[in-house]
Amino acid sequence: MKWLDSLTERRTRTIAQRTSRRGFLGKLAGVIAGSAATMPLLPIARAAEGGNPAPSESGDPNSCEYWRYCAIDGFLCGCCGGTMNSCPPGTEMSPITWIGTCENPVDGKSYIISYNDCCGKSSCGNCLCMRSEGDRPVYRPQLSNDLNWCLGTKSNVYNCSTAIVIGTALDE
Amino acid sequence: MKKFACVLLLFAGPVLADIQPEPLMVVKSLPESYPPHWIIAQDGSFFHMSNGKFIVLDADSDDPVGRFKGMFNGSFIAQFYQGKTSPHMYIAETYHSRGNRGDRTDVLTIYDKANLAPVGEVILPPKRSSNMPTNFNLQLVGDEKFALVYNFTPGQSVSVVDLDKREFVGEIPIPGCALVYPMAGSAFASLCGDGAMLSVQLDEQGQQASSNRTDRFFDPDNDPLMEKAALHKGIAYFPSFNGAITAIDLNGLKPVVLDTWSIVDGIDGGWRPGGISVISANSTGKLYVMMHPDGGKGTHKSPGFEIWVIDAGSHDLVRRIEMTTPVLTIALTRDDGLLVGTNVEMNIDVYDANSGELLRTLADFGQETPFLLHGSN
Predict the structure, then answer these.
(1) In whole angstroms, what is the distance from residue B249 CA to residue B311 CA?
(2) Touching check for B216 and chain A: CB below 8 Å?
(3) Is the pLDDT of residue B295 over 50?
(4) Chain B stretch 1-40, residues whose beta carbon is closer than 8 A to a beta carbon of chain A
(5) Which of B52, B54, B283, B370 has a CA positioned 20 to 30 A from the CA of residue B332?
């Protein structure tokens, strides 16, 4: 980000660092999601499922530097009328997505984060955020932040991205 | 009173002719073959993706207004291909019947270069991948008889369009693989998530005739190939995250991996390739690679602070061109004369591709996010 910070304020300059679309999975194989389920290596459908753990965490959830966004790429839904784990009014949450693994600095644990997109309206345009560690090219789609994941929704038009904790990750 | 009239005449000056009535309904056109230094800026309009556009610019011009030659649209992260054997440009794009909602229609739209107007279209299955623009989502093969569009639903496949008939003729599944790299004849290759490459040969009807799969030849976990390649004489050059280049010959029935070499070994500074387009090849086999210092995990999309010119044959680092402002994407003009790059301010810097001198900056031409640039054919 150093190069970006050195530039003067201008919205399009901010876009520059953030031109790809998606987040990534930081730690890959062998991690375990939730209590016992093996983390799928393909896009998963979890948007409608409940019972997500609520980890202790701190910081500004609408800041790109917030821990959950280690793998995100897009507009933060918390800045778009939703929250970090809910969609803005009138949008539809994509049931399939990609996932990342982010370390929560409060408890030092790594969590599996599901970056479900909110779809059906044009780009929110607020709080664009891209962090690319672990991102892979589109031949590894489950790890690729260049893909639009508004799939399986009525409209594939992208609005913003959530960052939903779906479980803890074991170290590789 | 006479005096006053004389004064009036003195100040009236010469009598001017009336402006003559002008013809109505005049619409300009462009030459079918663009001058060598015209470029096409592919603006993905990231803040309103359904209204992307392609802008034709004269990169030689210092006239900030006159350099703008025209534009045409591309909806929802459209993908682009410029015809080599015809004065056409092809756009794979997506529409919804109510703007951002309603029934989805994917379409391959054919534009003519002279009028920047659509001259044909082929409706596609509503499956095309809406990923960040690449040069390998849409390709033409078989002397440009067949158009190939990469699909992601997340099932992976390729839609085939017969451009003679201008109709969709079939869908070829490519499970586990992505994008379309043109091969000799009517064939294409795709990069696969297991580190191999798939190739598919088409028959005369555009159906799959055969397919082949290479052995695994790269490590997607520890040093992935970027999917961004440069093509020169049928050989695709792929940079890797850690700074190697792999050459793959696509001239035969099967892809043949030629060699892999590091372009960063022995050079201080932690330089790595990165960006949106990352690599471009000129007509003599020089590879222009976007490089950033202090690279590491997650920097593979960082803008290029330097362009390294690599001889694809000898593997030598020929030149390092420092960017005045870091660039997100680059392209070369077809005469190898100009290197153009979208910088981090979203303006286009024009460099002499040989001397590395910054010639001018194309700014304020109505652009927002010109993710890809193309030299005109």
Answers:
(1) 16
(2) no
(3) yes
(4) none
(5) B52
pLDDT digits 0-9 by tens, A32-48? 222 223 233 334 444 44
Reported ipTM: 0.92
B residues 315-334 closer than 8 Å to A (CB): 326, 328
**B23: preceding bond cis by omega (within 30 degrees):** no
Decide: residue B76, CB within 10 A, 0-12 exposed, 13-18 middle, 19+ buried: buried
Q: Which residue has the higher pLDDT, B6 or B37?
A: B37
Domains by residue range for chain A, with CATH: 19-47+57-168 (2.60.30.10)
> In the structure encoding, which two tokens stand for residue B31, read together?
């030459």
Name residue B371's amino acid. Answer: F
What pLDDT, on a 0 to 100 scale, did the predictor assign at position A3?
A: 35
**B chain contacts of residue A130, beta-carbon cutoff 8 Å:** 301
Q: Which of B48, B104, B156 sits opposite A156 (nearest CB)?
A: B104
Residue A78: pLDDT above 50? yes
Whether A67 sits among the annotated catalytic residues: the reply is no
**If you average pLDDT over every residue of chain B, what do you get?**
96
Distance CA B280, CA B341 (A): 11
> Per-residue pLDDT for A51 more than 80?
no
Domains of chain B: 75-216 (2.130.10.10), 225-377 (2.130.10.10)
How many Cα atoms sit within 13 Å of B204 on the Cβ side? 0
Confidence at residue B243, expressed as pLDDT on a 0 to 100 scale = 98
